[in-house]
Amino acid sequence: MVNEKHNGNLLVHLGAKLQAYPEELLRQRRGHDGQPEYLIQWSIVSLEERAAGGSSDSSAETKPENISMWMSAEEVCASCPALLGKRRLEGQWAKEEKAASPFAADVPLDEASLLEMKADVRSLVQRAGRQMAESGAPESSILNTIHVLSAYASIGSLAGAFKETGALDLLMKMLCHKEKQIRRSAGKMLRALASHDAGSWAYVLLSLSQQDDIEQ
After folding, report:
1. Measured between alpha carbons, how far is 96 from 94 in angstroms, rounded to an integer?
2. Residue 122 pLDDT
3. pLDDT at 146
4. 62 to each of 10, 17, 23, 85, how far by Cα in Å?
5. Parallel, antiparallel or unpaired: strands 4-6 and 9-14
6. What is the C-alpha separation between 208 and 112, in angstroms, rounded?
7. pLDDT by residue (tens digit) across 80-135?
C-alpha cells in the first residue's frame, strides 16, 4: 500500500485493482464528544478506469462506486484537507494530538533501537493473531496486547513495521470482534497509527466498507 495524492487528497490502494480517494464533503455534525464530524464521500475506481482517463466507452459504462464515511477533524486534515480548508484544521489537530499521547512528539530512534522495536511489533502482532484465533482466549489477554501495540503505533518511525507484519489485516478482524471492548481498543490503536499514517486508517475502514456483512 503506497500513499499517493489525487487533487491534493489522499489516494488509497485497495487490493490489486481498486483505488479510493475522498471526493466531496457532504455534511457536518457535532459528535458525541462535542467535536465536529464531517461526512466525506469517497470514490472507489478501478485502475483500468483511471488509466482510460474517463474518455473510453468502457469507463463510461463503469461508474465509480461511492462510499460515505463520518470522519473527525484530524482524519479530514490527514486525508483530505483540500475539502475543508487545511490551515484551520491543522491548528485544531495539532492541539488534540499534543494532548492525546505522550508519544506524539515522536522522538527519532537510532537504528539499533528501531530494529528492536520493529521486532517487538512483529512479535506482538503474531501474539495477537494467535490470541484472536484461540476460541477460549481471555478477553483481558487480547486487550493487554492491543494496548501495548497501541503504544508502538503512536511512534511514527514504526508505521512501516505495522504494514509489513500484517497488522492492518489483524486490525480489521479486531474491529469486527464480538466483544465491544476489543473493538473500541482496536479503534484507538488505529487512530494512534493514523496520526502518522493516514493511508493505514483509510485502507482499513474502506476495506471494511467493502464487506457485505459490515454495518456502514
Report:
1. 6
2. 92
3. 92
4. 22, 14, 17, 31
5. antiparallel
6. 36
7. 877 776 545 444 444 444 444 444 444 556 788 888 989 999 999 999 999 988 87
Low-confidence ranges of the chain (pLDDT < 50): 1-2, 55-62, 87, 89-106, 213-216
How much is the pTM?
0.57
All three cell numbers of 155, joined, read: 511512534
Over 153-202, what HEC string results?
A: HCCHHHHHHHHHCCHHHHHHHHHCCCCHHHHHHHHHHHHHHHCCCHHHHH
The enclosing H or E element of 141 equals helix 139-153
Q: Do residues 145 and 124 lie in contact, with contact meaning Cβ atoms separated by under 8 Å?
A: yes
Rounded Cα gap, residues 50 and 202, in angstroms: 19
Strands (DSSP E) along 15-128, which ranges?
Answer: 18-30, 36-46, 65-72
SS3 215: coil
Tell me, rounded to whole angstroms, the distance of Cα 1 from its chain centroid.
12
